[in-house]
Amino acid sequence: MTKEQFTKLVLENEEMMCKVAMSMLRNEKDCEDALQSAVLTAFEKLSTLKHEEYFRTWLMRILINTCNKQLRQRKRITELTEIQAALTSSAEEVEVRAAVEALPLKIRQVIILYYSEQFTTKEISEILKIPKGTVLSRLDKGRKLLRLELE
User: Of the candidates 1, 50, 52, 87, which lies 20 to 30 Å from 76 by C-alpha distance?
Assistant: First the structure.
């Protein structure tokens, strides 16, 4: 894969990466750091990518590992405040977003990857390195928690 191809693929996935990193780190500056670090790591480890068709999944795994490393390095998670998004979003969207943000991290990751980023359960399983059954149970638990919160 050439530098140009790598750059093109990273730019195509930039918005998705931002959403995932923001959902995990809940802080814009940490999100930016994680994105830069993940892209640099991906570029340095490009030779380890065996099949180019799995680039997106591979890149997301690197990003999630980077975010998890940042979460381990800091002892607390800061709250995400998106005042501008709240001002431009409907009340229902704000309520749903807040409910998703209130979910435990492991469940929130799966919910966002599945519903926001449209990954399959198999892809999520590969990205998070957990069994497909665990992905399904976290989706189910997330749906139940969201239903309870939003009723």
Answer: 87
